[in-house]
Sequence to fold (737 residues):
Amino acid sequence: MLHVVQYRPLRLITQTSLFSMCLKVVLSRPVAFAQIWKSWFSSRSLVGNKNIILMGPPGAGKTTIGRIVGQKLDCPVIDIDDDVLETTWNMSVSEKLQDVGNEQFLEEEGKALLKFSASGSVISLTGSNPMHAASMQHMKKTGIVVYLDVPTTVIMSRLKSMKVDRIVGQSLGISLKDILQFRKQFYKRWYDIRVLCGGDVAAEVVAEKVLDAVKRYQNSELETFISTRSSRSGRSMEKDCHKYFSDVVTEGLAPDGGLFVPERRLPKFTAGEWQSLIEATYIERAQVILERCIHPADIPASKLAEIIETAYGENFTCSKIAPVRHLAGNQFLLELFHGPTASFKDFALQMVPHIFAYCIPRSCNYLVLVATSGDTGSAVLDGFSRLHDADKQRIAVMNFFPEDGVSPIQKSQMIGCQKENAWSVGVKSDFDFCQTAIKQIFTNSDYTGFLTVEYGTSLAAANSINWARLLPQIVYHASAYLDLVHQAIIPLGSPVDVCIPTGNFGNILAALYAKMMGIPIRKCICASNENNVLTDFIRAGVYDLRGRKLIPTFSPAVDILKSSNLERYLHLISNEDGQLVTQLYNQLENQGHFQLRKDLLEKLQQDLVAGWCSEEDCLAAIHSVYSTTGYILDTHTAVAKVVADRLQDRTCPIIISSTAHYSKFAPAILRALRIAEINQNPLSQLHLLSSYSPLPPVHWGLLETLKKKGNEDHQVCAADMSMLMSCIETLIQNHFM
Fold:
């Protein structure tokens, strides 16, 4: 076995001479000595006995970056090509490849790596090492594998300039691009950390990024979450109250009634990093963005990749997942309805169940509670019903929805999506009651303790109060911008506006988070229907529920008066002032209103503008767009379109979030299209719409759900807390006992 202790000779220093040197520095420059010692100790503790293993395609710069990292850490640097393979074979790598051919080369390269051993070193792998499973398993045990992720176009340009004419796998009829694309699956299998490397980034910069990524990997305790209602003094005194990502996924709501947010805010991408994602697929973009938001100690990169592939690989009807379509002028539609239940909620809720199943203890049973104003319910039910059978046995979901406050097709969806671990309950009230009831249940420690002791079951939340619900939504806002750049609509760095129909503030908050992470969103336009409490608040800074009653509209998903996620935004713009947030929401709860300070309102209005749309204008917009383009907007997108027309200044593109498929609101759509005869049967309504050959076509998932002749029953209960608690206990007894 080849044991490598050192790649380059180090100057030997005796203990006596080292002591003398240190003493001189201490006496002459004590501050400088402290800094040097801290830097040396930090570097040594960063590596220890572990290796930093650089992996990536040929031309990624592994050798150069490895040498720089080694110099910075003052540790051995080993290049597998030069120091292992060529030494073992006594010939150049290119000669060996030409001599034995592709398959035999990979086998002999793997054997050489299996005999190799080192510790506390920076190791640069070959571009083909990851294609040999046994040798990579051997290497992975010795250290942290860092993937230098360089765009394929950049790699091809580098290899051309380096005059590299042959790499492993290349043969007649197979392009270099195809080989590089094929290899990505192997790189994704092995890495612990990814470092994005754009085309023009200096090796010195990449080396610093490698070191920063390794430090992050080794310090999961730095990525903690706090409540929006926790005070700074309380946080400093109660460090044990900090939560990690896996904690906030399972707990949902903070014990003090606040919402969890990252203590150190979200990471910011450089322009070069966004540049490297322009050519990427949606799934690749999601993987990169979410890796930076979820620490690998909570979900390793390989597991996260598996979850993302499961969520978006086959469950969406469009290969682009979230395509951007030109509507008219400078307006573009971000189509968020290609998932199995035809709304933007699928982006989070095809992922969250798998994240949840991974994060919770295997020995516990969990009941996930969710309140819905329409779209969330079917998305939650569908997502959790797709879990593996073993996970279904320990995870169930109960969905509360306003019995008379959703569209007929939405209700049919929620009833049709019921499975052995997923149930819907209609509540004789509105969404605000359902959402408030769930919050009260979570903060009722006597009741939750009773469920744990009596039934061995814990409660969790799947509404957008759960942090894991928001992260996948950040991805599609970022991806939409990158698509406009990819389509040459705008150059990278040019601003866009976004217009989002919102009631609970989650979707628009995700856009604001994307802006914080470096996407150049100029203004977020909040579009309301006649339940326009958010519009009033954004314009005047007064959140006032006094005398307001919820108005049922054609856009039920935004028929909301209490916007949960607004609390996260207020916490953000108040510089994490949990005491202020607590004061505001206590006042809202007790007096029905609060007013924002002038300085905070000015901050808010730098990010947000708002408008609202009447029912008549909503239907008129649907008719107008269909008449001119043949495209059918759903009612929520029509609300956003009306508001965008009024508020945009046409100096930059505007991306309108199309949050649901029009098929879910067939009666309103048929009315907007001025079709007189409307059959009350939801399936007949979809067939009628389909006869118009609309764009986009009628949603296949809805048709399949409505065609099923399954159980049409669902439980209905009064707007009473004790009744809801009784429903919860009944489900627990039936499913877990």
In short: Residues 278 and 566 are 31 Å apart (CA to CA).
